[in-house]
Write a structure and sequence with these properties.
This protein is α+β, with helices and mostly antiparallel strands. It has 3 domains: 64 residues, Orthogonal Bundle (Arc Repressor Mutant, subunit A); 58 residues; 74 residues, Methane Monooxygenase Hydroxylase, Chain G, domain 1, CATH 1.20.58.1460. The protein has a 4-stranded antiparallel β-sheet. Helix 7 packs parallel to helix 9 and helix 8 crosses helix 9. The chain is globular, with a radius of gyration of 20 Å. It starts with 12 loop residues before the first helix and ends with a helix.
């Protein structure tokens, strides 16, 4: 039984399809393979086919004859997922990178897009319009970056700021529980549900320098466990998909 405090979601046809394609490179698969694999996970064929149709209509998938692939919007999500699992780090020398919003946006959707993009790139909001993080991480493309001005600086108390912005101890606590849940899960459907929660949690890892992290830090272990599961799931899919 998985603890209620963990960020678990019940496996649905849509989440099964996304789990398969977000973990695939290239992010595409034949319809027959997707349906066959989903039924092996305990989902009904009609439910999966209906989900595929809805996902095309919603702009999640593109269909080319009998093959489904992720749309560019979800390919961006896959890229962020890949970077979170294998982050590109740079040596940390004490500097922080600040992203200051210097140009306003009239539409609420644009403001939301910028906020979500900064969060996806592991920036924390210091105050309204001012975001920052330790400068140890290569930043992916930020939406509406023309509205930002970047500044490098050093906080008076970087440890306090890192704790306040990113709450690393809370992240570590959930990561440790997810590792235990993945180890305890037996059926592939249960393991896929836990693994999906694992990768969502990895996406929220602030990827801080070691001096700001509680010890022991489970980040590397969680990534290793997810990579191992991905290998296991690929073998499972190869076995059951014609």
């Amino acid at each position: 039984m998985v603890e209620n405090s963990l960020p678990m979601r019940r496996l649905t046809a849509r989440s099964a399809v996304l789990s398969v394609l977000l973990g695939a490179h290239p992010a595409q698969a034949p319809a027959a393979a997707i349906v066959h694999l989903a039924t092996e996970l305990g989902l009904h064929e009609s439910t999966v086919r209906a989900a595929l149709t809805r996902m095309v209509s919603a702009g999640d998938l593109e269909r080319d004859e009998a093959t489904y692939r992720l749309t560019p919007r979800l390919l961006k999500r896959q890229k962020l997922q890949d970077l979170a699992i294998d982050p590109i780090l740079r040596p940390y020398d004490g500097d922080w990178r600040l992203a200051i919003v210097t140009t306003g946006a009239e539409a609420a959707a644009d403001r939301t897009l910028l906020r979500e993009s900064l969060q996806a790139n592991k920036f924390g909001e210091i105050r309204e319009g001012v975001w920052g993080r330790p400068d140890n991480l290569t930043t992916a493309q930020i939406a509406a970056a023309h509205r930002l001005t970047y500044v490098t600086g050093r906080p008076d108390d970087p440890e306090e700021l890192a704790t306040r912005l990113f709450q690393p101890a809370d992240w570590a606590d959930i990561a440790t529980k997810l590792l235990a849940a993945l180890d305890a899960a037996d059926a592939m459907r249960d393991r896929l549900e836990v693994a999906a929660a694992v990768v969502r949690h990895i996406l929220h890892d602030p990827i801080l320098p070691a001096e700001f992290l509680p010890q022991p830090w489970p980040g590397a272990d969680l990534r290793r466990a997810y990579r191992d599961f991905r290998t296991e799931f690929t073998a499972f899919a190869t076995t059951y998909v014609p």
